[in-house]
Amino acid sequence: MTLDVFRFGLQGDFTWNSMSGRSVRLRSVPIQSLSELERARLQEVAFYQLQQDCDLSCQITIPKDGQKRKKSLRKKLDSLGKEKNKDREFTPQAFGMPLSQVIANDRAYKLKQDSQRDEQKDASDFVASLLPFGNKRQNKELSSSNSSLSSTSETPNESTSPNTPEPAPRVRRRGAMSVDSITDLDDNQSRLLEALQLSLPAEAQNKKEKARDKKLSLNPIYRQVPRLVDSCCQHLEKHGLQTVGIFRVGSSKKRVRQLREEFDRGVDVSLEEEHSVHDVAALLKEFLRDMPDPLLTRELYTAFINTLLLEPEEQLGTLQLLIYLLPPCNCDTLHRLLQFLSIVARHAEDNVSKDGQEVTGNKMTSLNLATIFGPNLLHKQKSSDKEFSVQSSARAEESTAIIAVVQKMIENYEALFMVPPDLQNEVLVSLLETDPDVVDYLLRRKASQSSKSPSFVKASFMLCLQSPGISTV
Fold first, then answer.
1. I need a surface site. Which of 25, 78, 354, 395 has the fewest CB within 10 A?
2. Which residues form the Rho-GAP domain (predicted)?
């Protein structure tokens, strides 16, 4: 059984027919709505297109997660100083760590919290299950005492053996459903079980697949954004959009250091209204500055800079392809950060509120924000520490280029993280060569997304988990 694909060249649409005969038309979708497997294949498709169609005059490689970097002399000295000051007896969980490790730490902490809540709930349920037994036993003893005081001529009541309490309910039970019972399930349950089976690398994979693909999920992965970044962005969006000179006004070093240590200890920090906007802004900048590898990665530094050498109409599409090359954690974190910076930039100018009150802008335009964040998001590894102290015209030109690239990202972030239908088509074609069953499942998932209600679709898009960008014919 095969899958058919048709292209409507005039409209640039792509329509696929699934094995069930349902037609699915591809349209632009957020990259976060793709499955883990699709995102991995999208990296390869984007890499090929960059090499074939984009003349960036540099070597392009796909960055890897969590690469270890050689420490500069300054960082080595800082590390030695920290080792001498043994006032911190913990392993940092956020600052100075590879981004993928920070997200893994956050997830481990969340799983630990969930496990503790489940254990507490299980204990409460167990105690609750024993209460009826205790009450019945107490009632029986009271009844026996009363009967002994009655006359001997009365017929004694029939003894009632205490009811054995129901065992505590078992939670998180796995493997309770047999594969043989799939025909007894309704359509939604059947598809869920099928999805779970497809996700198991050892049971339903073709021998021709790559070893890497066997470990990738056929469903969208959770949004990989560090808790610190998301918390800071949410706090500043709520309390700092009208703050003049946000990210430029000084902060309290003591309070920032305290917040930093709390996040590094893995504490569940809650940023409230009393936390200074400038302290939280400084904390966010410190996190990005201290990352071992910049968010846009050193491997792609020259490629990002050289996009400015292309024709204006080609620059945005090339930036988009380069973003597809980023590891998922870098891509998702970059999207959250650019989304936030775009919101800040929209409040830069003075305006009048609905009730006629004049609202002062924060003065932070996209250019000002790119000037502040650009050097932390995009930089290359220096050949020696001496280069950090050498100011040259070449470095000044590079700094200007970095600012221009980041400014373009802030102003066009929504378009940069959408995946057009032609690239989705290339991804599905590459999967079709080895896994037609997988493609059929992905098509049915896309079709089911399009059938959601409008309110659900809008909420899903805002959460970057699902999108209505696929419509059925």
1. 354
2. 216-417
Q: Which residues does 9 contact at the CB level (< 8 Å), separation at least 6?
A: none
Which has the closest alpha carbon to 31: 312, 294, 334, 434?
Answer: 334
Q: Does this model's pTM top 0.90?
A: no
End-to-end CA distance of the chain, in Å?
21
Q: What is the pLDDT along the chain (473 residues), one digit of tens a residue?
A: 455 544 333 335 688 877 777 788 888 999 999 999 999 999 999 999 999 999 999 999 999 875 544 444 445 445 555 544 444 456 788 999 999 999 999 988 888 777 777 777 767 776 777 666 656 555 555 555 555 544 444 444 444 444 444 444 444 433 344 333 333 444 454 454 444 444 444 344 445 445 556 678 888 888 899 999 999 999 999 999 999 989 998 889 999 999 999 999 888 889 999 999 999 999 999 999 999 999 999 999 999 999 999 999 999 999 999 999 999 999 999 999 999 999 999 999 998 888 888 888 999 999 999 999 999 999 886 444 444 444 566 678 889 999 999 999 999 999 999 999 999 999 999 998 888 889 989 988 888 776 663 433 343 434 333 333 333 33
Residue 445's CB is within 10 A of a number of other CB atoms, namely 19
Rg (CA), the chain: 29
